[in-house]
Amino acid sequence: MLAPTVLDVFLPFHAIGNTPAVALTRNVPQGVDADILLLGAGDVRHILYTAYHERGLPRNLFFLTLLVTRGKELKHQLFWNVYYHLFLDEESAQVLQAHLVLLMAASNSLKDWRESKFSSQFRFGTASTLFSVRRVWDVYAQSLARKDQNQYRADFDTALKHSKSYRDATVNGEGAVYIGARAAAPFGVQALASEGMKIAIDSWWEKGTTGLVPVDTYIPNPLFAATLSKHSVLQYGANPVISYHLATAYAHVTERSPLRTNNSSEEGSSLAVVAAAQAQFAEWSKAFIETASGDMKLRFFAADALSLCHTLQHHLGTGQMSGHFYRRQLTMERLELDPDEYGMQYKTPKQFDIVDTSTLSDTLGILNILVSGSPLLKAAPWATLYTETMDEKTEGKEAKFDEILCGPARTVATLLGISPVEYWTNSTAVSNVDEYMLAVSANQSASDQAAIQWRLAWKCHEHLSGQTGQQLQLKVKDDALVNLIHKAYLAMFAGEALSDRQSEEFIVAIDEDLAAWLGDSDIIATFSVPVAALGLATRYIKVSLCLHNATLPASLLSRKIPELETPTNSEPIIIYETDLEDSAHVYLTKNKPGQDGLPLYSNLGPTGTKEATEDHKSCFAADIDFSGVLTTITGRLDISSQNGKKLLAEKAPVDVRKISPFIFEIVLGNRDEVYPLCFPVPVVKDGSKTRIARTSAYVEVTAPIADPTAAQTLDDFIFPSTLAKSRSSPSIGQTIPVPLNVPHVNLDNLPVLDIADKERLGFLTTLTSCMFSARERKLRDQASDSGLVTSARMNFKESLFTMFMLASGLQGGQTGLFAIHHPEKGGIHMLLFVSAIRLDGANASVALDAAVIPFTVEMIQGGKLEPFLLILRELECCTITVDDEELALWKKVLPALAERCRNWTHTPECEYAVPGAAVPLSTEAGKQVLCSCGAGRLPQDFISLPEWDVAAQFATRIAISPTYAVAFVEDVIDPSMAENIPRSGLGVQGYDSLRCTNCGGLEAKGGGALMKCARCKTVRYCSAECQKKDWKKHRMECGKAGEKRGN
User: So which residues are the signal peptide here (predicted)?
Assistant: First the structure.
C-alpha cells in the first residue's frame, strides 16, 4: 500500500522500559520448549523476569553477555550500575571496559563470533546486525577512553539536558509518578499517595543513579552517553525502578516470603522502592544465568520489525534468505538472513510459540502487526501474539478497540482469523483496577499523563474453538469486503494526503552515509508508483519531495534546510520539486535501489492443512452489513456419507443442537449420525435459522454473532482450556490441557502477604470488589433476595469475593477452608484449601495459593478420606452454596487453575491422554474432573490441618486470582465508584470501614449514611439486600450469631 514515510529525525531512546516486566511464557504450558520472537524489545526486563518465572540491541546484548560471562563472580550491584546508571563509579567502569575488550575481539566477523565463547547462547540473524552492533560497541570503547576528559562529560551533560527538556515538555513531575505507581500495582494508589515513589523516580533523572552509590560515581556511562544527543533523547518514562514489581515496597510480606528485602527503611520510602527493584533484579539475573547454562539461545536482529516478519514469512514458504525488503527505514541496505543460521540444514526457529511486539502497535499499528506477525505463530493452542498499547482515555474503551483495528473489531478480527481471547471470554486474571483508579485520579488532578495500558493476547480462532488443525475458510461477498477495506483504508490514513533508463534491467547503486542525519550527504528518496499513473505524457509530470506538517515538525529539518519555514497550515511543504524527465535527479527503475525484486508479502492463509473428513465437510460465509459490522455467519454442512444421505432422503428428523459457544451438533434420526458444525467465532442459537436440503444432502445454519456481555452461551466461557500435544509435532508429546486466557504463575516465587497485618490488607477489598463490571454491579443490585442471580459468571465472582475476604480475614472469621456445596445435588462437591495469598506483580493482582479436592464416588466409597472428613466437621469451614450452573462452571475452570501453576509433568497414564477425553474430564456429579497426575504434588507444610497427610494425596494445587471483565468489551469499573475514590490512597487505614461491606458503596442506596449491622455494630451496608448477600460471610464474626460452618 502506498503511503508517506515518517522521518525519524528525533528519536526517543528506549533504553529502559516504562512498564513492569511480564513473563513472555505466561501462556506456554509448563515443560514445553518455547521459541519466542521479540519485536521492539527496548530492554531486557521481560527476558530476565521470564527466566525467574520459569526458574526451578547492542546495549542489551552487551549486558546479557556480561551477565552470563561474569554473573557468578561479580556482585549484582555492579550489573545494576552498568545497565541502569547514567553515571558510573570507577569499579563499574572497569567491569564495562574489560567486557568490551572481549566483545570487540569476538565480533570481527560472523565466523569469529561463531568460534567465540559467546556463540553458544548469543547469535546474529544477519551479518549487517553484527556490523551495526560492533560499530556501537566501538563507540562505547572510544567513550570510555575519554572518560576523564572534561569535554566528554560536558557533552554528556548537554545531551542529558535535552532529554530532561523533552521529558518536562512531555510529562510533568506528577505524571511521572503515575507511571511509577503502575509498577506498584496492586498497591498503585498507595504508591501515588507516598512521597517515596516520587523521590525514587526524580532521583534517577536528577542524579543519574538510584539509591546509595560510591562517592566516585561521576563517569558518564557509555551505554547511554554514546547514544544520547540533541536528536536522540531518553524516552520520557524511562526509569530503572518502574521495570520491576514494586508492590513489595508497600506490602507487608511474611518473614520467609520470596523477594522480601532486608532493607530496614520505612515501607514506601524511596530507599524501600529502590531496594525492592534491586532485590528482584538480583533474583531475576540469577535465574537468567541458570537458564543460560542450559539449552537457551538468543538470536539478535537490528531491523525494521515489519520487514523482518515479512522476510521470515517468505523464508518459511520458500527457503530464500531475502524478501526484497530494506533492513530498516531510511536506509538502502537489503535485509538478508544469514545462510549459516537459516540454511535448510539448521534448526533455527522459523515459527514461534510467542510473538511479543512490545509497544510497537502504537507506532506501527495493530493491523500491520497482525498481518506481519500472526503467520509466524506455530499451530498450537498456546501460540500467542502479544500487543501492548497505551490509551490516555478512561472512557469509550469499546470504541477504542474498533479504532485500533480501523473498523468494527469483531468483523476485522473474524476476517483475519485472530482475536484477543479475552474479547470472547470477557474475563481475565490480569487486573486493570489500579490503572483505572490512577487514571481517574489523574483526571481529578487535571493531569492528562496517566494512560491506561492494554495488553492483548491474540490467538488464532481455530484454537479458541478447540479445533486445532481444522482451519476454516470464510467467504464474504465482494461488495461487502470492498466496502469494509475502503473504510479501513480511510481510517488508517485519515490524517495523510497521498499525493539505459528505458530498460527493465536499469538499476541504481547508492553508497549510504553512515552518519545519517548528522552527515552532509544528499537526501535520496525512493518510492513506488503505479506504472499507469505515469501515463504517456511524462513531460508534464512533476516529482516532489514533500514534508507533511502533521507527521514531523519542520523545525527539525532547519539545520539541513535553513530556508525552510514552518507553515501556517496543514498543507505539505515542498522541499524539492523537478520534472519526471530530469535525468540528473530522477531515476526510474523496476526495483528499489539495492533490491533485485519486488517486496514479497505472504498471504494470511494457514500454514497447516485442513483435516480431511470422509463423511462431511463444512464451509462458512460471513454476512456484513453496509456499516461494516459482521451480523451473522452461515455455516453449511455437506454430508457425503451414504448413511447420512439416506437418512436425509428418507426424511429422518434433523435436530440442530447448540453444544458450545462455537459448535452446533447436527443430529440425524435417533442419533444415527451426528456431525459437528464448528463456527470460527462464538454464535448464538437464538435468532438462528436452519435450512435442510435433503436432495442435495446439506444443512445450513445461519447464526447471529455472540455478544460477550449478553450471550448466555458465553456466560460460563471464562477460563476455557483445550487438549493438545505438549510438543509442536502432533505425532509426539503428551496430551495436556492448555488454558487459553489465564496466565501461568510460579507460585513458589511470588511474595506472600502477611494476613495478620489487616491495616495493610485493605486494598484487597477494592481489588476483589472490582471483579464486577459496571453492568454487573447494576445486575447485582437487582438480584433476588435469595442472594443468587441467574448468571453463573456473577455467582462465581461472588464466591471468589467470599474466598478472598475470608482467607484474608478482612470480613468474617479468618479461614482457609472452603466447601463448594449444592444442597439439592448431594451436598459438598469439592473442598478448597487456601495456603497463602500471594502478590502477583506481573498481573497487577494477587493469587490464592490453594489446593482442591473434587469429590468422586470412588474416592468417598474407597474410605481413605474418612479420617479427614470426620475431622472436617470440627474445623472452621465456609460453605459456599452454588446452583447447577455455578457448580458446572467451577468444574470447567479447575483445569485452567491447576495448569496455570503446574510445576510437575503429566504422566503417560494421564486421563487426559485417553482417546475421546475432554477437559474437564467430566462435569457430572461424582465423576472425575481433573487428571490424577497432580494429586499430592504439594509443597511441604502447605497447610496446617489435622489429618492433612490423608487429604493431601487427593489434593491438586491451584492458583485462584480475581476474575475481571475486559476493558475493550465493557466498562470494567463503575465511573461513579471510581470518582468517589479519594486521591490520597485507596484501601488505606480507615477507608474500607466507611464502605458497604458487600458492594463497596459509599452511601446508602436511597442516599445518606451507610447502615451498621444491628448485632455487631461494626460492618456497614448500603441496603438490606447487601446485608442479606453478605450474611453467609458475616455470620462467622457477628457476635453471638457467629457459628462454625461444617458438614
Answer: none
